[in-house]
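User: Could you check the structure of this?
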Amino acid sequence: MLVSTVIFGNVPNFAVDSYLVLEQGGKVIKPVTVRFDAQADRSVVWPKTPKFKAKVVAWFNYANFDPMAKTTITVYPATGGEASFPMNFVEIN
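Assistant: Sure, the predicted structure tokens are below.
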């Protein structure tokens, strides 16, 4: 399964080494592969902050998670911090 997110920052290479995981019932599911934009695009608010937007894309093995379980996606930007949000895969058509 592919999970793609867009993150925002203030320098063109802010997304380098960013990471993404799933969490289900206290279990952290790591991706098979993670890709990130090495050079971010300008955001629509350029030159105001956040100046740039970049994608972080993670691929997960279907055998490693339960698509019916409550899931939290957490993105770890390389610049520090984290952003988490709930996801219900059952509701995706």
